[in-house]
Every structure is written in C-alpha cells, then in structure tokens.
Amino acid sequence: MGAMFRSEQMDLVQLLIQPEAAYQSIAELGELGIAQFRDLNADINVFQRKYTSEIRRCEEMERKIFYIRRELSKDEVATLDITDNIPRTPNSREIIDLEAALEKTENEILELSENSHALLQNFMELTELKCVLEKTQGFFADKSAAQNLGATGGDPGNENKPLGFVAGVIPRERIIGFERMLWRVSRGNVFLRQVAVDKPFTDPRTGDAIYKIVFVAFFQGEQLKTRVKKICSGYHASLYPCPSEYTEREEMLQGVRTRIEDLNMVINQTKDQRQRVLISVARELPKWEIIVKKIKAIYHTMNMFSVDVSKKCLFGEAWVPTDDLQHVKNALIHGSSAVGSTVPSFLNVISTSETPPTYNRTNKFTQGFQNLIESYGVASYREANPALYTIITFPFLFAIMFGDLGHGLLLTLLGVWMVGWEKSLDKNKDEIWQLFFGGRYIILLMGCFSMYTGFVYNDVFSKPMNLFGSSWIVNYNTSTIMENKDLQMNPSEDYSETVYWYGLDPVWMLASNKIIFLNSFKMKLSIIFGVVHMIFGVCMSVVNSVHFRKPMNILLDFVPQLLFLVLLFAYMCFMMFFKWVHYTAVTEIDSLKPGCAPSVLILFINMMLFGEQEPLEGCEEFMFEGQKTLQTVFIFIALICIPWLLLAKPFYIMATRKKNTGSDHVASAGHGDHDDEPLSEIFIHQAIHCIEYVLSTISHTASYLRLWALSLAHAQLSEVLYSMVLFIGLKSEGYMGGLMIYLMFWPWAILTIGILVGMEGLSAFLHTLRLHWVEFMSKFYEGLGHPFQPFSFKKMLEAEREEK
Question: How many CA atoms lie within 13 A of 207 on its CB side?
C-alpha cells in the first residue's frame, strides 16, 4: 500500500546503446514495461529516420498476415487465443525466418485460391452450359419463331433459309435492357426466348449468389448475327454452343454432366487441401501477429533514439521509476550479452526541470479505485493520492445511501462472482462489460459495506430483524393498545435500562413516527460524516505542503481553513452529540428533559446571525453554561480566518520577493502554488481561492445531505415495492396463497434487482463519486499531472484487443 500513498519517484535517464545491441535491449525493456521513451528526433520526418526500412518490412509482414486472416475468416477457420501464453520477442536474426515463412504461406494460399477460383469458374461455365442444353429443348420444338420473323417484314427471298441463333445465359437484372436493345438494333427481326434458372449460381471470387436466365435469340442473316453477339458481349451475357438437333444436344449434355462430376471431385480435393493448409496456418498466425507487432514497436522506439556523429552509438532518453533503475540496467546487460557485444551499454541519470510523469503502482485490487481518481484527473507529480483512502471512504459513503442488508447481499454476491471467476470473465472484451468488470472489487466492497449499514439500519428488503428483542417494554393490555390510536410510549417508563445492543431497535419500524425519527437520525448522520470527510480532506493538504517543502502553506492556508471548518461546522456536529447525550427522559431536572432540547439548526442559525430565541417555560436557550460566549468567540475567530486566508499568503510572497530578489518575480515551483506569477495575479488567485473555499464549505456541507435523501428514498421505495407487490401474495391464505406468493415473487424480484439494486445502485454510485471528486478531493488535490505511459508489450497488446 506504500506505493499508493503518492506516485512513484521518477528519474530521467540517458541510454547509450551500441547499434548491434539496440534491438535486443529495447525488446527486454518492452517486456518489462518500465521505461517511457522521449522522442529525440521530433524535428526529423518519419520517412528520414534510421529504421524506417525495417518498419516498412514489418508493415509488409502485417499485410501478409491480414491477407491470411482474411482467408481464414472466409473459410471460417478459428484461430487460437494465446492471451495467457504470449511469445517472447525473437532476436533480429529470426526476423528473416519469419519473413520467409509468411512469404511461403502467402504464396501457397494464393496458389490454392487461384486454382480454386479457376476450378469454380470452370464449374460455373459447365453448369451454365448444362442449363442451356436442358432449357432450350422447348425453344427448338416451337415452330412459331419462323412465323413471327416472317410477320415482321423480313426478306421474302430468305423464307426457306434456316434460322440462325445464339444461346447463352445472362444475369437476371440485365435481361430487360438486353431485350430492348435487341429489339431496337434488329428492328424487331430477332426473336428472343428465355427461361429463368431455378437455383442461383455462386460467384467464384466473392461467393455471392447470382440469379441468371437462359436465352436463345433467333435471327436471319450473318449481319444480324454479328450485331446480336456484340450486344451479348456488352451486357455480359455468356454464349455457349448449342446444336440445333436433339440427338446432338443430348450427346453434348451427357458429356457435360460427366465433366461436371469429374470437376466436382477435383474441387472437393482442392477444398480439403486448402482446409488442411489453413488449419495448420491458424495454429501459428496469432503468434506471428504478436511477434510482428512487437518487432514493429521496437523499431518505432529505436527511431526515437539519436545517432552520434560516428554512428557507433545510439542515444536515448526515458522516464524510469527510481525503484526500477536496476531493472533497466539489467535489461541493457542482457541485451548486449544476447548479441555477443563486447562494448557495454550505459545508463546515466540526468537532471531536468521538466515535470516527470505520474505513476502509481497498482494491482488488480487497487486498479479500480485508481481509475476512479484518474477519471477526474491524473495526480500531479508526487501529489498525495486520494485512491488509497477511497478504498474505504467510497464504499462506506455508498453504503450510507444504499444501506439494506438484502440488497447489499445481492451486490456482494455479484462481486464475489466477478472476483471468483475473473479469469474466464475477463475474456469477454466487450467495452461496456470491461468497464463494469474493472470495478469488480469496488462492487464487492460496496456490497459488504451495504450489508453492514443495512444491519445498523435494521433493514432487510424493507423489513426489520428482531435478533436481540427490543429495549421498549409494553406496559399496556391488548385492548388498550388496539383501541387507543393516540397512545404513545414514554421513554421514561416504557424503555428498559438496557440500551439496544447495536443499530436501530426493530420496534421503530412499527412506530407511526418512524419517518420523523429516521429523517432526523439520517440527516444528522450525513452532516457528521460529511464534516469529518471534509476535515480529512483539508488535513491531507498538510501532507502535500510538507512533501513539497512549503511549510508556510500550513500557516497561511491550512490553519485558517481548518479553523473555519472546525469552529463552525465541526462545532455543529459537537452540538448534535452533546444533545444526544445531555438530554434524557430519565431525569428530575425539567430543563434537561427531551421537550426542552433546543434545535441544533436554530442554535447554529442564531450563532451565525448573533440572534436569540426565547426558550419555552422551564427550559433554557443554550445547552450548557457559557455556550453563548463560546459561540461568539468561534464566530469572531472564523471571521478573522477570512482575511487571513485572503491576504496572508500574498503579503508573505511580496515580502519574500523584496527580501530575496528585490524584483517582481521569483523562480519557485511547488504543488498548488502560483508564486512565480505577478503580484496582481497572485492577489486575484488568492481572492478566488478564499471566496471559493468559504462558500464551498457551506455548499459542500449541504451537499452531503444527499446521503440522507438517497437513504430515505431507497428505504421508502423498497417498502412501497414490498407492500404493493410481494405483500399481495403474503396476505393470501390456503392453496391460493401459495400460488399468489409464487406469482408475486417474480415481479417483486425482477423489480428489486432492476430498480433497487441496478438503478438505485447506479444513482448512489454517481452521487458517491461526486462527493469524492468535489467535496473531498477539492480540498487538497490538483490532478494536473500527465500519466506515465511506458513502452510495454503487454499494455500495447491489451490496448489493441480493446480497440478490436
């Protein structure tokens, strides 16, 4: 957990690597994922960099891999998932073998594809010829063709000459235009007969279904024959030889059928061979893809290095966590030894004024909470990290709003399922699911904390638990209780001396003033937790001030902020506790009985406005002696904190500048400071900061009332759902009662999970997120950093899988 307290300390290092060892050294660093490289060639065009040719080789290999994967998808051949067994980066000599393997595989698949296309094209042509021979039998038996041609005004001298014809097939969508063109060109002297083919043909290239029509065009004369063939060519009609005699057609048809059967056998053998090749390739393709991506990433990184004048050394710069410097040195040593280099590589830590990137080392448990914080903003370098405290405060504030033992149990079971089966569930790469799955530990803790607060509220699906009995004692007979609707229980007489063991007494759920009691209880509870949460946030600013060596910020910012918050709002919380403890029904002093207990809200308003209120007869205005004087002192100190917060820091900066430099500027840097700005801007900035803090203290305290509002709303909605749905079945009797319980349970369960757990849970989650981002983190958190993005093969592959 120490790494979660604040971001890792980072060093800017300079790497001096021999060119022959550069590839293997960068590969070792990519496997470790601990170095963020800087581009030292930003002013050089990408096409003019040293390793551009190697990147182009990788792109060519990627093109071949893409072609192979497309062929696998076309034949529906599945590839293996090697997420858990990622291959290591090959050495530079093995790249040539990989290129040769990809070249051989591509050529083999291309050759098989071309052979398959040629065979399928031949098969389609033979099938079309078979259809022509089968479908044209009726055309030649019909003698009306000659009569129709004679009626169109043909040459009388050609009446006894035999008719010429062409036969073929044409796509169905072209037949209308084809027929019109024949009519116009021949002026009606072509007689066209057609019939549709029942089954569609398959395109050899695309595999799409094509519907075609068999046609025969009758005509007279060679000139018209030439025109008809040109029109057929223009409309992409395929012409086939078709004898006019029946016996010749039958003989040709028989031969075509035999050739189709032989061709089918060859096609099946080709498909089997192609399938065997693709299956063997599918085993290697995922590994090839990862290797090529790694190689390409290595050369991209090497292009960020600069080359010295003698071209005997590569210079690079990278941000590295201080704790990982030794790992980087070891990677350079392994890289040099892997290629047998006699000249070692060097690592030098260099100083810089540039702000380092922010890196919080996390694990699978803390990553979800860190993501919540970084969704607001990445922490400034070495700033106190709120994610560490959010692990507890986030599920706890959520549970205050969601407090129900039954609903919390459902949420806990969901979290246990996601955590227990996380390896199998992580394989689902859906974007929305991954967002939900990434917060599995948050969901688990929210469920556990909700069970705890549900136990405190004594609330299980809107019903109380009577585990420890009740501390209230009924001293009346049954008739009195049932007939007297105005009967009230007196705490001094009807309450035992034993305080209820833990949480709420179950009898409150049966009381007519339940809402009034819970309203007061949960409202005060939300204010108390809110003030404690804000005080903790203000105190966290001390951690930043100490770390960044700004001790004056403690006196100039922290002290007035804390005094203002404590003397006003923490004092109001003190009055709540004092009122609970001080006033009791078991007392002989009239001014200390519950009826004389003053309103905390009225006392606080009178304190702020210096007002007074006449107490009831026999009662006192204040809770204890000297309270009015104490409140006056608190108000004056809180008012002094405003100019203190407004002017102290600007005047201190002005005095420091005159003392140290005698100028209007000073070079300083630190978390949350604007000390290097002109004095006018410092005064403006501090005024904004002061006004924002004073007003936000009031608004943020009121904002925590959402804990009270959502808790009451959740409890009431749960009670309404129980009484209007499930209770319909519970109040039924006999066999019909059992059936009604069964029927009513399902809509109640669906609505409970969908509305109370799903929608209400999401609402409580978002409100909790807002309380952390605004009310808590605004007290100490800047969030102006930039994330550490190391060169890591693992993260690179994960990002590509998410994009897919």
Answer: 5
At residue 292, the pLDDT reads 93
Cα–Cα distances in Å, from 541 out to 683, 774, 781? 21, 15, 8
Q: Is the dihedral of CA 229, 233, 235, 236 positive or negative?
A: positive
Residues of the chain with CATH 3.30.70.2750: 116-264
Does the structure show a pLDDT above 70 at 267?
yes
On whether the CB atoms of residues 191 and 240 are closer than 8 A, the answer is: no
How far is 235 from 174, CA to CA, in rounded Å? 7
Residue type, 172: R
User: Mean of the pLDDT values across residues 378-401?
Assistant: 94
User: CA distances (Å), 767 to each of 367, 381, 449, 716, 775, in order?
Assistant: 21, 28, 16, 18, 11
Helix and strand totals (H; E) in the chain = 30, 11
pTM of the model: 0.80
* Residue 242 phi, psi dihedral angles, 5° rounding: -145, 105
**Could you identify the residue written with the tokens 């930039």?**
786
C-alpha 636/C-alpha 638 separation (Å) is 5
Structure confidence by residue, pLDDT tens digits, 30-65: 999 999 999 998 888 888 888 899 999 999 999 999
C-alpha 703/C-alpha 543 separation (Å) is 25
pLDDT at 143 over 60: no
Which pair of structure tokens corresponds to residue 512? 């007519």
Q: Distance between CA atoms of 517 and 509, rounded to whole angstroms?
A: 10
Higher pLDDT, 216 or 149: 216
10, β-bridge pairs: 321
Beta bridge partners of 472: 495
Residues 6+ apart with CB under 8 A from 224: 164, 186, 189, 190
CATH of segment(s) 116-264: 3.30.70.2750
Element (H, E) at 128: helix 94-135
How do strand 164-171 and strand 209-210 relate by DSSP bridges? unpaired
**Looking at the predicted structure, is the pLDDT value of residue 378 above 70?**
yes
DSSP-based three-state secondary structure for 311: coil
- Closest among 322, 334, 321, 278 to 88, alpha carbons compared: 334
Are 160 and 198 spatial neighbours (Cβ–Cβ below 8 Å)? no
**Contact (CB, 8 A) for 471 and 499:** yes
**Which two structure tokens, joined as six digits, stand for 595?**
């009826």
Helix (H, G, I), strand (E, B) or coil at 626: coil
Extract the tokens encoding 500.
Answer: 């209820």
Q: For residue 397, give every residue at least 6 positions away whose Cβ sits within 8 Å of its Cβ, in sequence order, or none.
A: 529, 533, 707, 768, 771, 772
How many CA atoms are closer than 13 Å to the CA of 258, on its beta-carbon side? 6
Whole-angstrom distance, CA of residue 730 vs CA of residue 732: 6
Alpha-carbon distance of 585 to 490, in angstroms, equals 8
**460 beta partners:** 463
Q: Other C-beta atoms within 10 Å of 369: how many?
A: 25
pLDDT at 82: 74
Q: Are 446 and 391 in contact (CB under 8 A)?
A: no
Query: Does residue 168 have a pLDDT over 60?
Result: yes
Q: How confident is the model at residue 668 (pLDDT cuts 50, 70, 90)?
A: very low
Q: Is the pLDDT of residue 117 over 60?
A: yes
Rounded percentage of the chain residues whose pLDDT exceeds 70: 94
| Confidence (pLDDT) at 149 | 45
* pLDDT value of position 486: 76
Look at residues 246, 57, 241 and name the one whose alpha carbon lies nearest to residue 139.
Answer: 246
pLDDT at 344: 85
pLDDT of 145 > 50? The answer is no
